[in-house]
Design brief:
The structure holds 3 protein chains of 3 kinds. Chain B is of the alpha/beta class. Chain B has 10 helices and 12 strands. Chain C is globular. The chains are: A mainly alpha, B alpha/beta, C alpha/beta.
């Protein structure tokens, strides 16, 4: 009998932090332009001590203006998607659930496409025009989440089965709309949209968007974490959870909103990167167990590591060209999924 | 083994749901509780539970019997406070069960019912520890005391050897015991069981009722069991409530409830009743002609 | 009862962790403290402001020594202006002239590697609105790298765009010369085709599904200047056509763009073998023209492709040339034909792919 203790939780998180750190260092080192670890270390120290004038300006540009923001973006997107995935798997009582199953990514794509289509007709400054895609995507995601919520209500309460159905149907419907729009998009827009939908981190978002992403992540993840032990009980059965003192209605609402927010923010910024939200929680369950008090934090770290690794591969494998991150996660994710299935999903 | 139950004083600590007329001898009081359920608000109710009334003391076992779909499970849910009665109220130590906050309810009322299939199977001790959930703060980890209580609970039901086993790898009877242990870990005042003997063989059934009898008296639980097994009810219950089509026909000690004409009317089949040496009735089917 | 101290300690620890993470998350990225963007030692730099064809105001360092091109058409234009020595990087698809393939590659036009571009320390990055993404331009802006965008919609636009670009790059005389030369060719062509009724054609970008070029594209304009009218009247840039519609309209000629005559001929044969296509007179009578894939790129070379098409469609207007409709020539005033035959067969496809990928 070894129940979870705070020290074990912190120990696991510390190990994963260390792994993430190593991954980040390697990711900083690799790229279209090679960087030496020694030089990197020196530069980092100089930055910490605010002696930026001594840096070679190329290094500074490449490392700090291009690679580091991209890696940070990958960390937060990966963490958001895995926490959302684990949450939806608990909420919907379905191990095949991923953050997109309720149509969030399709809604975001529709929003992004609409933003793309109306952009030429609005006279916007370039700074605002660049925000149009993430804003459009987020609005699309928010509207979809709201619609699915109301469609998924049963007798005034969120019902897992109905919610899942509502989500899948909405997602299919939105996919049809996407196809319609895609057929009318022109040239570069089309290709760009296709890349976006596959999930890509290569275009750094505006600073305000990054900040919102980070803030949103911490807020939502914290909210979900407060329901961690409730989720453990919910998975054992709804009725049982209710009799064990879980306010099922409140927990469901909090998790639904928070997980949708996580997904919506991630997708608005980077498109629909697949397999991360589905598989990372399962891998973490295999390693650390299904207790959500440890699953949620480790999933966050695991997702961050997965996306940074995938993105690094995506931008080095066919250098100087780049693959979209979503392609890498799919290539790695599908075999991993098969493997996990054979182990009966932990 | 120190007493597993909490003293009545702590149970009455919070004034929420206080009904005022608190008779310390009676723990559970079902007062003219009725219920109606309809799928569509505009249609007539599909099912009704008519005004029901009985009381139970600490240490007592009450059995609720009757044919299928007569409202037994509904009554149990009303007692548990998860359903709100149409009229009347259920009082536990003077507090209206439905009005209790979730956490408090979890600390006072424990429900044992058929388990939903587990999505990610856990070990028995994890399962039993879930019973401590109503006692925790939001972001808590189990304390030494929780672990002790969980161990105790497993021991009380004779399932210590199952502590590290996975829930999906043990037999039905063993699972039932672990579920019961989880209920005990809640340190409840009221223990509710919904058809606990369904998938058990006769040996396991007797075992379970013996355990309930023992626990009820040792830990001063009030136990309400919904069951089909008339003879188990007759043998172990202090009171039996006989239901038919949502109506409580009779409540009282088994000997007064198990009357041949009444039983034949309710169950629509010829039956005989004989009194055993201990005064407990036994229901038999008449031998084939 | 559990001691109150334990949960409190845990919560306090939790809050500390959360606070730490929050700070880490909100830590201003070093970019915010960066000095002025990648530049030569301060003091010797002069900037000139231009307005590009997308309406953006661009600060261009003078002189422009290091150029990165993010579109094959712009790469060709740079070579045509004689500035190839200043070209330090181009895309994977920049294959003409052959020398362009030897330049450092920065990836695709849609998703170039920002790192690679930055590493080349360009003074100016050239983009075009129809191919490159606004996100790429924005990202370059944020890195402090200037980018100049072109956006030609007609052949005339291509000429004036080239001249304007020459001005931005500091070689207005070369631009004027090139522009005048192109104008002369076009004027000559107009004269020859004066009074000749235009042929109705279908320009085939892709055959399965059937994709052609819309009326607002420079391709449509090129067709017009070559003495042809496209039967496609769509305002979409790359419209899907239904075969029925094409059969109803019965174009006089089918026009293919390819890197050699052989692959163009091949395209026709494949098309002709497909069911339904025999309903077209043009297919039955084998009336098709194959021109250089230069027609797909808004670059100076398009003029030679236009001339070539004109020759094939209206041989009678070019008395000196023994025109044979089916025979393929890819004349280009600037390059000897031999060099063109050295082009690997995939390059034509890549250009085709580039255009087609846009449409797919």
């Amino acid at each position: 009998m070894r129940p979870l203790t705070l020290s074990r939780l912190l120990a696991h998180c510390a190990i994963l932090s260390a792994v993430l750190f190593v991954v980040v260092v390697i990711a900083l080192k690799l790229g279209a332009v090679p960087v030496s670890l020694y030089g990197l270390g020196h530069d980092l120290l100089r930055v910490l001590f605010r002696q930026t004038s001594q840096l070679s300006s190329e290094y500074q540009l490449i490392i700090f203006d291009i690679r580091l923001p991209r890696i940070l973006l990958g960390i937060f997107v990966g963490a958001s998607l895995s926490v959302a995935g684990a949450s939806f798997q608990a909420l919907l009582r379905n191990p095949l659930a991923d953050p997109y199953v309720l149509g969030v990514s399709s809604g975001a794509a529709v929003g992004a496409i609409i933003g793309l289509v109306i952009e030429p007709h609005l006279a916007l400054s370039p700074a605002v025009a660049a925000l149009l895609t993430p804003i459009g995507a987020f609005l699309g995601a928010a509207l979809t989440v709201t619609a699915v919520y109301f469609l998924g209500l049963r007798q005034g309460q969120i019902d897992s089965g109905t919610l899942l159905l509502a989500g899948i149907i909405t997602a299919s419907f939105l996919q049809a709309i996407i196809m319609f729009f895609m057929s009318t998009l022109t040239g570069g827009n089309y290709r760009g949209m296709a890349f976006w939908m596959m999930g890509e981190l290569s275009t750094p978002p505006q600073r305000i968007v990054s900040l919102i992403l980070r803030f949103g992540f911490f807020l939502s993840a914290a909210a979900i974490y407060t329901t961690a032990s409730d989720l453990n009980l919910l998975l054992a059965g709804e009725k049982e959870a209710m009799h064990l003192g879980v306010d099922v209605r409140r927990v469901r609402l909090v998790v639904y909103i928070a997980a949708s927010l996580l997904t919506g923010l991630a997708v608005s910024v980077s498109g629909a990167i697949g397999y991360v939200g589905l598989l990372v929680p399962h891998v973490m369950r295999l390693l650390f167990g299904s207790d959500h008090r440890i699953l949620l934090p480790t999933a966050a770290f695991g997702g961050a590591i997965a996306v940074v690794v995938a993105d690094t591969l995506a931008r080095t494998v066919v250098s100087p060209s780049e693959l979209p991150v979503g392609a890498m996660t799919a290539i790695a994710g599908a075999p991993l999924f098969l493997y996990l299935m054979r182990r009966r999903l932990a | 083994m120190s007493s597993f139950a909490r003293s009545p004083a702590s149970a009455a600590a919070r004034p929420i749901g206080d009904a005022g007329d608190f008779n310390s001898d009676i723990r559970l009081s079902v007062e003219q509780v009725s219920y109606a359920y309809s799928a569509n608000p505009t249609q007539a109710p599909l099912f009704t539970l008519e005004a029901t009334r009985f009381q139970a003391r600490p240490g007592e076992i009450v059995a609720i019997v009757g044919p299928n779909a007569c409202g037994k499970s509904t009554l149990l849910k009303l007692i548990a406070g998860s359903l709100e009665p149409l009229s009347g109220r259920v009082l536990l130590n003077g507090f209206v069960t439905h009005a209790l906050p979730h956490r408090t309810r979890g600390q006072r009322i424990a429900m044992v019912q058929q388990e939903s299939p587990l999505l990610f199977p856990s070990r028995a001790w994890e399962f039993v520890l879930q019973g401590r959930h109503p006692y925790g703060r939001t972001l808590r980890f189990e304390t030494e005391e929780d672990i002790l209580i969980a161990r105790n609970a497993l021991a009380q039901v004779g399932a210590e050897h199952l502590t590290d086993r996975f829930m999906d790898q043990i037999s039905g009877g063993e699972k039932q015991r672990v579920i019961l242990a989880r209920a005990l870990a809640q340190q409840p005042l009221l223990l509710l069981l919904d058809e606990p003997t369904l998938h058990l063989d006769i040996g396991a059934q007797v075992d379970l009722l013996e355990t309930l009898r023992r626990l009820a008296s040792a830990n001063r639980y009030t136990v309400v069991v919904v069951t089909h097994e008339l003879n188990l009810a007759g043998q172990y219950a202090d009171q039996v409530a006989l239901f038919q089509k949502g109506k409580c026909l009779r409540v009282g000690p088994p000997a007064t409830v198990f009357q041949r004409e009444l039983l034949e009317q309710v169950f629509q089949t010829p039956l005989t009743v004989e009194l055993g040496s201990s005064g407990r009735p036994r229901v038999n089917m008449p031998s084939a002609k | 009862m559990p001691t109150r101290k334990d949960p409190r300690k845990n919560i306090a620890a939790g809050i500390a962790i959360v606070a730490f993470l929050l700070c880490a998350g909100l830590w201003p990225s070093p970019a915010a403290q960066a000095q002025t963007p990648a530049a030569s030692p301060a003091g010797s730099l002069v900037y000139k402001e231009f307005v590009d064809e997308a309406g953006r105001t661009v600060r261009v360092p003078q002189p422009v020594q290091r150029i990165v091109s993010l579109a094959p058409s712009l790469t060709e234009t740079i070579y045509a202006l004689g500035l190839q020595d200043r070209l330090v990087g181009d895309t994977d698809f920049c294959d003409y002239p052959p020398d362009a393939q030897k330049k450092t590659k920065v990836g695709g036009a849609i998703n170039p590697s920002l790192e690679q571009i930055a590493a080349l320390r360009p003074d100016l990055v050239l983009v075009t609105k129809s191919l490159n993404l606004i996100q790429t331009v924005n990202a370059l802006d944020r890195l402090g790298i200037s980018s100049y965008g072109t956006d030609p919609h007609t052949v005339k636009d291509i000429v004036s765009s080239t001249e304007r670009l020459a001005g931005v790059l500091g070689v207005p005389e070369a631009g004027a010369t090139l522009g005048a030369d192109l104008e002369r060719h076009l004027a000559d062509l107009q004269q020859r085709l004066n009074g000749v009724p235009p042929r109705r054609v279908l320009f085939i970008v892709w055959s399965d599904p059937l994709i052609s070029a819309g009326k607002n594209t420079f391709i449509a304009d090129a067709l017009r200047l070559a003495g042809a009218t496209s039967i496609v009247d769509s305002s979409q840039d790359w419209p899907h056509m239904s075969l029925e519609e094409v059969v109803r309209l019965q174009p006089d000629f089918l026009v293919f763009a390819a890197s050699h005559s052989d692959s163009g001929q091949n395209d026709f044969e494949i098309l002709a073998a497909r069911p339904g296509w025999r309903g077209l007179d043009a297919v039955r009578n084998r009336r098709f023209a194959v021109i250089s894939d230069a027609v797909n790129r808004p670059a100076p070379r398009i003029v030679s492709a236009i001339e070539d098409l004109a020759r094939q469609l209206h041989p009678e207007a070019f008395s000196a040339q023994p025109g044979d409709e089916k025979e393929k020539k890819i004349p280009s005033p600037a390059q000897p034909q031999a060099a063109l035959r050295l082009l690997p067969s995939s390059s034509g496809d890549s250009a085709l792919l580039e255009v087609c990928a846009c449409a797919l």
